[in-house]
Amino acid sequence: MKSATKCFFGLSLLTPAIISSCTQNDLNDTPFAIILLPAIGAIAVVGILLYLLMIRQRETFYSAQKTMTKNLLVSEIERAKRHGHRTGIMIMDIEDSVGRGIHYFLPGRTVNVEHVEKEIRKSDQFLQVDYRRYKVVLSHITADNSANIIKDRLLKIAEEKKWPDIKIGVATYPTDGESAESLINSAIADMERS
């Protein structure tokens, strides 16, 4: 066994003197686990690195989406100030009871971007900002309660189609806030109350 261990570590260090003293029997006597451990370790390291890379890319994507939502809302607020109308934001959180991709096989029992986009106006800007969180910039709202009407309509549709639990928060400019940040915070607070 000593010569087998010496032979294995000699091969891993690539020391010519030790390699020349190894025989085929020494290699055959080396326990399989000793040979397999470095391979398993390498696979684990590669897996962890790929996982960390995936998380970083996902965070970068969602961070860009959040920035885009804020920029859209800022430009929509400026347009509302200029033309004297209202605008708002709707934030939706959808229960994560069904895994990714499953909604294609279970129509009517899950909700995704396509389902919600069908139920809002074409002029509203719809973004997915996290795995199950969506933001809709509501452009050119006619009254302060228009955002709540849209919210109630979506909740009714969610109940009819048996979507999973859905939380919706809305905020309207200028009633609930004067800036994009204050509107987003008001919508999140409204969503948590519901």
Give a description of the structure.
Residues 4-19 have low confidence and may be disordered. Helix content is 57%, strand content 16%. Strand 2 and strand 3 (133-141) form a beta hairpin. The chain has 194 residues and is an alpha+beta fold. The protein is built from seven helices and four strands. The chain folds into two domains: 2-52, no CATH class; 64-193, Alpha-Beta Plaits. Strands 2-3-1-4 form a four-stranded antiparallel β-sheet, with helices on both faces.
Find the CATH superfamily of the largest domain: Reverse transcriptase/Diguanylate cyclase domain
As a whole number of angstroms, the C-alpha radius of gyration is: 29 Å
Distance between the termini: 69 Å
Please give the domain count.
2
Taking pLDDT < 50 over at least 5 consecutive residues as the criterion, the unreliable ranges are 4-19
Q: Strand content of the residues, in percent? A: 15-25%
CATH topology of the largest domain: Alpha-Beta Plaits
Give the overall shape, derived from the CA principal axes: elongated
Largest sheet: 4 strands, antiparallel
Instruction: Give the count of helical stretches.
Output: 7
Sketch the topology as an H/E string, one letter per element.
Answer: HHHHEHEEHEH
Mean pLDDT equals: 73
Main-sheet strand order equals 2-3-1-4
User: Helical amount among residues, as a percent range?
Assistant: 55-70%
| Helical/strand content category | alpha+beta
